[in-house]
Amino acid sequence: MVDFLREAAGVVPSARQRMWYDTAFYAFIHFGINTFTDREWGDGTEPESLFCPERLNCGQWAETLRAAGMKGMILTAKHHDGFCLWPSAYTEHSVKNAPCSRDVVGEAAQACREAGLRFGVYLSPWDRNCDLYGTPAYNDYYCNQLQELLTGYGELFCVWFDGACGEGPGGRKQEYDFSRYIALVRKYQPNAVIFYDEGPDVRWCGNEAGNCRVSEWAVVPSELCPLAPVQTGPGPLAGEGDLTYLYNTDRFVGSMSSILYSRGLSFVPSEVDTSIRPGWFWHSQEEPRSLRTLFEIYLGAVGGNACLNLNIPPNQDGLIDDRDVARLMELRRLLDQEFAHPVDAVVELQKDGYPTQPEYLVTLAHPVSKVKYVEILEDLERGQRIETFRIEAVADGGRNYPLYQGTTVGNRRICVMTDPFAEQNRLLDGGGDKLDRLLVKITAARGEVSLKQIRVYE
Predict the structure, then answer these.
(1) I want to staple 199 with a disulfide (CB 3.0 to 4.6 A). Which of 83, 165, 227, 361 is the partner?
(2) pLDDT one-digit tens code per residue, 380-417
(3) Which residues pair with 86 in a beta bridge?
(4) Which of 260, 254, 255, 257 is closest to 228 using CA atoms?
(5) Nearest alpha-carbon partner for 378 in 9, 116, 5, 20
(6) CATH top class, domain 345-457
(7) Residue 273 half-sphere exposure toward CB, CA atoms < 13 A
């Protein structure tokens, strides 16, 4: 048991996964034939003549995302309808036969480079337009298109696959060759993370609503992500239980109760993907979600050991809707207001006799009447290790007041101490006096704790 926990503590991210964590907040861009049919899933029979965004401006997309504080863009180069936003040599169902015959993928990639954003692509494995779908030849077709994207548009930070697998002509089902797809990405874009339900680099959070786990582990059983590298031996109870129930909708995928039964552990963090609107493609009648909702999703994702991939769908003009732009700018202002200026503080290790239960005294440069957030960052290059922790207000006379109790930390944990939308926020020390010291106590960890930083915001 002890040896396995030491192994679990040593499961670490790859260089590409660390870069992905640094990207943190980026945009999905759902744009294509569905934008002009008012649908979410096209059937592949839509004429190319429908694609006619007369004011298409990928620069406006990129500048909007940059101004919103995002660091990247992932474009739906091809959705389930099979229409390609680049002039693919392998199909006629693409922009080359549309009134707007521009290479949208190329323009988006260039706009990202000019705005300092990272660029990625989504390529749907399900193609409702291709007659080869449901035959072995379809994997050749798909790999040819994937290679076009991997080699024609500069460096990619992410290649995004989904698992949609519907019927082809005559009810044929397709067996996707993901091992082959992954090998192509590794060959041509070795620095890009691959998103898919089963890894190998980033997995789905389990829903599209923006709901985040209370405890988000990046160290998960290999049964959950069989496409990812295994970094440990089997758990002490491997073979004595069944983990076939595990899927990304499970709320406890990396918990002790699951890893002990695993045949091995992998580092596969979670992405929270959701849309600024009810749908993924633009629909004129829809409105963006509230500022509060988006802010809470951000806190739960970026502040919960995940990254946030927020969908922003361009409209039929080929521009991001003014309503969405306004909401994104509101979100940026709120994030700047809440997190731009941490309180100056000195962090000292107070108790290191138990390496898995250290305590950190945080002495603030000036007393504060309330604390809004405490942000904790683990050093993932040594592994994700913290199981539980507490935050206390330090008072004179040796009496501390409990403020917060949490579980996992990982890349970044934002502990919300007060509601920024409340008309009045209570004082955290329980007595009305200002606070000048906090104690962060790690109460359980899988190995010696290694923190990168603790930050406090008032």
Answers:
(1) 227
(2) 999 999 999 999 999 876 678 899 999 999 999 999 99
(3) none
(4) 254
(5) 9
(6) mainly beta
(7) 24
Return the SS3 of 445: strand
Retrieve residue 65's tokens.
């995302």
Determine whether 300 is exposed, middle or buried from the number of CB atoms within 10 Å of its CB (0-12, 13-18, 19+). Answer: buried
Phi, psi of 262 (to 5 degrees): -80, 155
Neighbouring CB atoms inside 10 A of 19's CB total: 16
Written as six digits, the tokens of 363 are: 């002495």
Burial 59-82 (b: 16+ CB within 10 A, else e): ebbbbbbbebbbbbbbbbbbbbbb
Render pLDDT for 59-114 as a digit per residue (tens, 0 to 9).
999 999 999 999 999 999 999 999 999 999 999 999 999 999 999 999 999 999 99
Cβ–Cβ < 8 Å for 168, 142: no
Helix (H) or strand (E) holding 440: strand 435-445
Q: How far apart are CA 288 and CA 37, in angstroms?
A: 20
Cα distances from 423 to residues 45, 418, 426, in angstroms, run: 53, 11, 10
Q: Is 178 helix (H, G, I), strand (E, B) or coil?
A: helix
Residue 280, token pair as written in the block: 């993924």
Q: How is residue 379 written in tokens?
A: 């050093």
- Please, are residues 195 and 241 in contact by the beta-carbon 8 Å criterion? no
Helices assigned H by DSSP within 340-425: none
Q: Which two tokens stand for residue 90?
A: 């392998």
pLDDT at 425: 47
Domain positions in the chain are 2-338, 345-457
Q: How far is CA 260 from CA 104, 108, 219, in A?
A: 47, 45, 12
Q: At how many degrees (to 10) do helices 137-152 and 178-188 cross?
A: 20
Q: What are phi and psi of 169, to 5 degrees?
A: -55, 135
The DSSP output letter for 48 is G
Over the chain (458 residues), the average pLDDT of each successive run of 10 is 93 98 98 98 97 98 98 98 98 98 98 98 97 97 98 98 91 95 98 96 97 97 97 95 92 94 97 98 98 98 98 98 98 96 95 87 93 97 98 83 95 92 52 83 96 96
* Strand partners of residue 445: 386
Per the structure block, which two tokens stand in for 374? 């405490």
The two most distant CA atoms of the chain are separated, in Å, by 78
Q: Tokens at residue 376, please?
A: 């904790």
